[in-house]
Amino acid sequence: MSVLSDRVRPATALIAIGANLPRAEQDARATCLEAVQALRETPGVQVEAVSHWYESAPMPPSGQPPYVNGVVRCLTVLSPDALLECLHTIETHNGRERSVPNAARTLDLDLIAFDDHCQQTEHLVLPHPRAHERAFVLLPLNDVQPDWRHPRSGQGMQAMLAAVQGQEIRRIGE
């Protein structure tokens, strides 16, 4: 577990984890679990909660295999940009290749929110611009932060969940 500096107030970061391609002999869920372990080992990051795991249809719909999805809530003393860089490193270590948007992948780590911070740069938009539209983000996010409110819209979790009813998703085994 990472030790956080007591000189800096840690921020709460919400990180979505997803995968739909196997890596070597490892299935997508095992890769997601490996990503959680990598976050636990990241200096300046302390994992507080891990959601249940879910299986969801690709968004937008395509011929890809289903995704395994979850969300991690952590405390961090890293900046949003430094945390995003760590997420990209973990993705690369797990075989992520960036090709076309919405392509199948061995691992996808998205920084969904960083406290109530709002940011829009070329490399990072906070909160994540489509998180509130996706059941595969909201259901696991509800597991780890049911009182989360979208920093831009102010919408609470129940209203956002109601808006994504009907999207294909199911909780999978522990």
Describe the structure in your own words.
With 174 residues, this protein is of the alpha+beta class. Helices cover 25% and strands 24% of the residues. It contains 4 helices and 8 strands. The strands form 2 sheets. Strands 1, 2, 3, 4, 5 and 8 form a 6-stranded antiparallel β-sheet that branches. A two-stranded antiparallel sheet has the order 6-7. Strand 6 and strand 7 (125-126) form a beta hairpin. The longest helix is centred in the middle third of the chain and has 14 residues, at 80-93. The chain is globular, with a radius of gyration of 15 Å. The two termini are 22 Å apart. 36% of the residues are buried.
Average of the residue pLDDT scores: 88
Number of helices: 4
The structure class reads alpha+beta
Detail the poorly predicted runs. 1-7
Q: Give the C-alpha Rg.
A: 15 Å
Number of strands: 8
Largest sheet: 6 strands, antiparallel
- Which range does the strand content fall in? 15-25%
The geometry reads as globular
Written as H for each helix and E for each strand, in order along the chain, the element string is EHEEEHEEEHHE
Please report the distance between the alpha carbons of the first and last residues. 22 Å
Q: Which percent bin holds the helix content? A: 25-40%
